Amino acid sequence: MALSNDIVLRPRFKLEIPRPNESILKDFETAKNTQKEFIVTRIDDHVFIKFPKVQQHFWSPQLHLEINKVDENSSRLHGLFGPNPTVWTLFMFLHFLVAGIFIAFAIWTYTNWSLKKSYAIQISVTLLMVLIWIVLYFAGSIGKASSTKEMRLLNNFMNNVLKID
Asked: 33-49 burial string, b = 16+ CB within 10 Å, else e?
């Protein structure tokens, strides 16, 4: 699995596993109780793997796995690397806030331009929102890049539990 995609801030992957999903989920339950490196949480067909609180920082990744039954002898695993959901929600809120301000000021700029009124402040704020959006994107990219080593540790743990080379 490649983690080098530069555009996607939350890398996803999919695996076909020739084992029943309950067997895989039981392996994660066993791993939860036999190791202390990661916190493993299971809710139905979902498994969340993250680092203990003392090892976490703002951009610490977690791995969300959804293990679906395909038939009696095979399963499909959907994986998603991402930051803590609270951090991701804040990050998305900031993106939507910037987008909303951008749209409002772009409309206000166009209106003033159409009415042949001064629109310097409005266009300045509109351009500032573009700059802030770029900064947010690069902050997310830097956060992802700083977490690559941790994502590999999570991935290796998952592969060890699944007995994948």
From this structure: eeeeebebeeeebebbb
How many structural domains does the chain have?
A: 2
Q: Report the percent of the chain where pLDDT is more than 90.
A: 61
Residue 78 and residue 98 in one domain: no
**Share above pLDDT 70 across residues of the chain, in percent, rounded to a whole number:** 94
- In sequence order, what DSSP letters do the residues of 19-38 get, joined into one string? S-HHHHHHHHHHHHHH-SSS
DSSP codes of every residue in 23-77: HHHHHHHHHHHH-SSSEEEEETTEEEEE--GGG--TT-EEEEEEEEEEETTEEEE
Domain assignment present for residue 79? The answer is yes
Domain range for residue 112? 88-139
The answer on 93 and 37 residing in a single domain is no
Q: Which run of H or E residues covers position 1?
A: none
Which of 82, 30, 75, 27 lies closest to 59, judged by CA? 82
CATH number assigned to the domain comprising residue 22: 3.30.310.80
Give tens-digit pLDDT for 80-125: 998 888 888 998 999 999 999 999 999 999 999 999 999 999 999 9
Assigned domain for 117 exists: yes
